[in-house]
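Subject: for your reference before the review

Hello V.,

The reviewers asked for a structural picture of the protein, and I figured it would be easier to keep everything in one thread rather than splitting it across files. Below is the amino acid sequence we used in the manuscript, unchanged from the supplementary table.
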Amino acid sequence: MSEGDAIQASDLRRTFKGGVDAVRGIDMRVSEGEIFGFLGPNGAGKTTTVRMLTTLLPPTGGDARIMGLDVVAQAATVRERIGVALQEIGLDPVQSGRELLELQCGLYGITGAAARERASELLELVGLTEASGRRTKTYSGGMKRRLDLASALVHSPRVLFLDEPTTGLDPASRLTIWEEVRRINGDGTTVFLTTQYLEEADRLCDRLAIIDEGRIVAEGTPERLKSTLGHDVVSVALDGAERERTAAVLADLPGLERVVAEAEALALYVDDGPASVAEVVRRLDRASIRPGSISVARPTLDDVFLRATGRRLEGDAGSRGEGRVDDEREEG
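And here is what came back from the structure prediction:
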């Protein structure tokens, strides 16, 4: 493990019963002080990876270290160094926010006046001081997420794992969680964040890895990943037009770098998007092809995902439950 690495994984793998490979040989390094994003759709292997890194699930191959500590051989010590907020929020509904945090403090040997002081600090950090005396069953979804985040911080962990912390939240609550994560990171905590939201990865993460079907398919800063495409993206919605014939008509478009076929559209990566749109319209009109909308945009993280996997991430995130591996296989 290199000096300055908070997280390191080498050929990390996990196979579940029935031979399902949820994680298929992941290599990664996360530097101390980073916000590192793990971006991918449901079933990609994000949660399985987090559970291995946080000692909750043993790998079936490879190895991983947190702050230089082996997650299997030194699991107990690893747990002392990390904070974890998983998708499933396990809050006692009859406890108040303050009671829950003071109880969590006790689990780490922080008791009495020290526990009360630490709970107060954390409640202020996540903006729940005024609601601290209320039972958690009265909290909104966003408030529960923030309290869960605070409970993961009671022992001042060196590394914080957040597994899709904003899933299901409204936009305002999502922005609040982003602010808290930035503030925590600003105090020196390394943050490992899984997400299926492109905007979240783009705006929050210093660096990220895109995972698909248990493998990392792209890695880097959001800007570097987008700049590697280096082209405008012209999207042609087919709306019933024949895919192969449409692609053939546009195959030698000036400045065309490549064409990626999507479910109901073609994505054309070109040097000059606005100029290409006019030429696309002319060619399709001459060929009597009537597509749907034609649009042009600069590359996004979704285009990076499309280039790496052949399909888009947006629109898939909530609709791929049939392929989910992360939670269902572990129960078996």
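For the response letter, the relevant points are probably these. The longest helix spans residues 171-186. Residues 315-332 have pLDDT under 50 and may be disordered.

Happy to draft the paragraph if you're swamped.

O.
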